[in-house]
Amino acid sequence: LPGKIKNEQFSSVMGDFAAPSFADGNYIMMKRPNEIVITHQPGNWEITDRILQTSHLRLDLKHPDGLEWTAYVEQEAMYQVGDKVDIEFINQKNWYYPMSREG
Predict the structure, then answer these.
(1) Are 62 and 54 in contact (CB under 8 A)?
(2) pLDDT in tens, 58-82
(3) What b/e readout covers 36-75, taking b as 16+ CB neighbours within 10 angstroms?
């Protein structure tokens, strides 16, 4: 998730998140697929792929802004390719990586 840290606050299209001890600048915030939850509200994220795996169902998601995420849900989940969903993060542990000057 691309965004900007200013005054230890990461800002992005997904909202603002605490970023203590990070210098101001452009960063990418990363989350693990098991830290992303599909909410019960419709949203802007479109399910682009649905893959049944051994212990879970993998959903590939795309936002109109071009962002892409992967989420894991229970195998019995009834989500289908083309469904519009919303997501939220269940863990406040975020991983920030500085963006290169080019991007």
Answers:
(1) no
(2) 999 999 999 999 999 998 999 999 9
(3) bebeeeeeebebeebeeeeebbebbbebeeeeebebbbee
Q: What is the spatial distance between Cα 43 and Cα 98, in angstroms, rounded to a whole number?
A: 29
* The two three-digit tokens of residue 69, written as one number: 């995420």
Neighbours of 15 (CB within 10 A): 11
State the residue for tokens 């989500």: 79
Q: For 51, phi and psi rounded to 5 degrees?
A: -125, 120
Contacts of 78 (CB under 8 A, 6+ apart): none
Q: Is the pTM of this model over 0.85?
A: no
